[in-house]
Amino acid sequence: MADFSSLGLSDWLVKQCKQLGVNKPTPVQENCIPAILEGRDCMGCAKTGSGKTAAFVLPVVQKLSEDPYGIFCLVLTPTRELAYQIAEQFRVLGKPLGLRDCIVVGGMDMVSQAIELSNQPHVVVSTPGRLADHIRSSNTFSMRKIQFLILDEADRLLEQGCTDFTKDLETILGTLPAKRQTLLFSATLTDTLHELKNIAMNRPFFWESTSETRTVEELDQRYVLTPEKVKDAYLVHLIQKFTDEHDDWSIMIFTNTCKNCQILTMMLREFNFQTISLHSMMKQKQRFANLAKFKASVFKILIATDVAARGLDIPTVQVVINHNTPGLPKIYIHRVGRTARAGRHGVSITLVTQYDIHLVQSIEELIQTKLKEYPVVEKEVLKILTQVNVTRRQCEIKLESTDFDEKKEINKRKQLILEGKDPDLEAKRKAELEKIQSQKKKFKQRIQETIQQQQRVQLKKKLTKRKQMKNKKAAQKTA
Ligand code: AMP
């Protein structure tokens, strides 16, 4: 295996890596760093936790040391927390250079960001929305001379998910020079490869880890089959088990909505688990503070929505619990990638209800791995079922008495107005869609019930026939 010097990095940078305990390059680093140093565009697709960030930070810092100026490099990433994490790696590895970075994300003071931008930092790390706002509202900084554009979690930036970055990206790309190096990284790049190729034009070097599986071997991937109504009791049981057995373990729990995240946090606190949450309905400062407390192990349990699914690197996380089975298999890959990072071991447990079986099948297809059942003593879960469900209901009532839903509604309306949409029209459309979905769900449920009933009737018939045969044989014997 190569070492960092043979990849073309200077001695001072190799020394800096060693000080961080980074001695040998990981495969994504070994393959991508030389191509980037050669001046090529690069697309790197490697499993979560395999050192993607350093694969682009190291060559950029190397090139910056040869010709330092600002603004030299722009990194775009989908979440605010990731922007801070990436900026930290630039700061640490570029320390001997006196590298200056600037973080431009939503939810933070725009004026101080504008001042920092006008001071020509070497590296800007940003979420697309806020940077596009700065570009639209001021001309005190220029990115006309940047040498590197990096899209981290590139597939998320380019897909049209719940947050659509397309317009903001267009605004940003319009201010960048055509002659630049573009680097694209993600654990799930291949799904959006065609769009990505349009952005990276300069003889792109494409590297993908050769392994057939999309998750790491060190990750023990499990599932627990549970009826919807018993799910929370399973969650409490699992947390109790892990905290009893390992007092130094941190647990990350993913759930589907901000409200659920809030309710589960309240509920677990009622059971005396030190729990903290992270979701997009929280103030940004609170989000950073909670993440910092979790990273420092002040709180051992973090409940989050998918805003924390990608990229976050927290070495103490030993367990990831999916409170809901992710609807998209690639979200599963990112969520479980919060543990078993950088060669460490970890466990993921997905709570699967009767309605999620097909989701598990598509996850298994994508990751090319079968999830194994996690053994749980059902009797133990049933013992706490009533207490858990009552506590949850109490927490729901408590939350309803706050203005949580109202705040959510206001935030949504603001977002729609910013996107140039009519909130009332959108609400009408959403209501219609929900009606159709609920009808579909009921229809599916009815079909399932009919199938189960038919199976029961057939089984009953079989048993009666068997009994009759037995009786007949016995009668024949006695005759
Ligand atoms: P990333 O995939 O960039 O989030 O990195 C995951 C973790 O691996 C981080 O904690 C890095 O500090 C660590 N890391 C990155 N490169 C290496 C390396 N070559 N050897 C050991 N650890 C590394």
From TrEMBL:
The protein's matches in CDD domains, at most eight in alphabetical order, are given as: DEADc_DDX49, SF2_C_DEAD
Any single Gene Ontology cellular-component annotation = nucleolus
Whether Membrane counts among this entry's keywords is no
Q: Helicase C-terminal domain spans which residues?
A: 218-382
The answer, when asked if Iron is one of the entry's keywords, is no
Q: Name one Pfam family in it.
A: Helicase_C
For this protein, what is the EC number? Answer: 3.6.4.13
- Locate the region Disordered: 458-479
Q: DEAD-box RNA helicase Q domain: from which residue to which, for each copy?
A: 2-30
Which PANTHER family does the entry link to? ATP-DEPENDENT RNA HELICASE RHLE-RELATED (PTHR47959), RNA HELICASE (PTHR47959:SF25)
The molecule here is called Probable ATP-dependent RNA helicase DDX49
